Structure prediction request, 551 residues.
Amino acid sequence: MNHRFLLLCAAAACLLLPACKGNESASADSDGLAAFSADSLGKHIAQLSHDSLTGRKPFSEGETKTINYLEKQFVAAGLEPGNGNSYFQPVPMVRITTQADPQMEVAAGDKTFSLEGFEDYVIWTDRTDSSLSLKNTELVFAGYGVVAPEYNWNDYAGLDVKGKVVLILVNDPGFNAKDTSLFKGKAMTYYGRWTYKFEEAGRQGAKGCLIIHNTEAASYPFTVVQNNWNGSRLRLDNRGKQESLCDMIGWVSGAAAKRLLEAAGKDSTLLATADKRGFKGSPLGLSLSVNMRVKAEYNQSHNVIGKITGSKYPDETIIYTAHWDHLGIGKPDETGDSIYNGALDNASATAGLIELARAFKSLQTKPERTIVFLSVTAEEQGLWGSAYYAQNPIYPAAKTLANINMDGLNYYGKTKDLIVVGRGQNDLEDYLQEEAKKVNREIAFEEKPEAGSYYRSDHFNFAKVGIPALYTSSGVKVEGKDSGTGKSIQDDYTAKHYHRPSDEYDASKWVLTGAIEDLKLLFQVGKRLAFADKWPEWKTGSEFKAIREKK
Ligand SMILES: [Zn+2]
Prediction:
């Protein structure tokens, strides 16, 4: 929108509104902001995290109650149904339960030894065949298991891995090399995530993929990996789409990897060769044998979706997302509470989505593009609701300008800053910065980009299909408090309440004024997109730029 037009509007509005004061004038800039209410936000958080919703687990009675509540609120906010005449998008899923042998046999020439399940290796599958086996299957070292044309890097070049197991390193070549010109240096790229590595190994025709665990490079200890031992995992119903999936995927511990290398007559210097350009993978002269039984159960969960149709470009969309699901009822904590309420994670941002809907609906100047409000399911078990939407879009990706995702709002008062997760990805961070400046706030960036947080929430599935995505987390510079306050509140939450029954809403303690200010900024970014002449783009160097340009 052009600047002169804005000024004229502001002047006209001043004439009409007697209460209007000088530079705080009711301009297009403030259109919609009055709709935000901390009270209303708090009420929705209280409802969504209430014990009666039993922790909002997909397929449970808690799901039915949650999605019905959201539908009701979307209707009340004046949203139109987002999927034809329905507010729901069914998400077909499968629960895959695996039972692997307690030992894996390793053969090195005529010598054999075994690795212990859980201690040394953790394996599972995304396939639904009732039994899967490795039988003397060759093991091949494939570096980081990365094919990244934009970095001119291919760990699989000239390497035959068909029907074999690849052994690969976690993170990407930039991490260990301490070379800022390799990939993104210490910051993790998409290629560093284990999900990518399993997918790529499958595309290369490998039968199995084992990642070598390293606490620093993975950003979590092996105990986190061990949670996957012989358990159940949810994923999208993939019947008929399994041809490029490995039979077995998983991890080996650092110590087990050392034993494998020793048996192959190698040591960690082999691993270090993967950090250098021109690296070539090679067979290790080892073979593996192990069996796994698999049980598949099919079920359906739901995304909830509403929209406001654009006045000028109805087929162009901006999509706000927040996952509604949480962990349900589980292991009781020390107080005997077994309901994982997920008040912060993610009743808070789901409630925020309702506030955003009310604000967009209240605009005096109706948005020119369609605004979509999408509350996705099954984030906690692998970002599945957003993955399903991205793979089965109701609004085509090529006509979607942006995704703005929220997971956990601020509950400790106003902050000067708002943290952008995934620095330098796309233009949306610049738009956010400009909006922040206007209200004397600032953006900052996540402390540990090497943890790959940009690839660990729902917006990532939008990025993967080329849609510029923005993901923020709460600021730490709390107004009127010591500089360490925000950080220590966040650390305290992570240590004591994250994914525990005590992630509960307390109206007497939660201060939602900061959440409202953050929502307003995300609203302003979306509003700007709803009227913009120019679409946001991925920045040079982003691994998602080429995907967008193909569309
Ligand atoms: Zn979450």
In short: The first strand starts at residue 80 and ends at 81.
